[in-house]
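Please decode residue identities from the backbone states below.
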């Protein structure tokens, strides 16, 4: 992970909010959020922690951990059938939020 952080952040401070959503001081005023994680993603725990933090702040959160998937799986729709399924659920959820006026 150190190699990835070095290439992602370079010489910048990794504790700044732009480095990770977990670094933001307050998440209380964020809109409804759909957090998708992958079962075998090294960063899954961070995604789950972010979803927890949003919920604790009163933000409406829908979360889904996709079994058997790795980090970045959503970028490979031709390889994993799960991609289309997840994108479909995200689209449906987005429409529901728009209809409810919560976006």
């Amino acid at each position: 992970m150190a190699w990835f952080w070095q290439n992602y952040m370079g010489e910048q401070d990794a504790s700044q909010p732009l480095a990770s959503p977990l670094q933001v001081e307050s998440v209380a005023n964020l809109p409804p959020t759909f957090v998708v994680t992958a079962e075998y993603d090294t960063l899954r725990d961070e995604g789950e922690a972010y979803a927890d933090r949003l919920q604790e702040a009163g933000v409406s959160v829908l979360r889904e951990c996709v079994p058997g998937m790795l980090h970045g799986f959503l970028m490979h729709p031709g390889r994993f059938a799960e991609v289309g399924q997840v994108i479909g659920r995200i689209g449906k959820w987005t429409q529901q939020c728009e209809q409810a006026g919560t976006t």
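Observation: Residues 32 and 102 are 7 Å apart (CA to CA).
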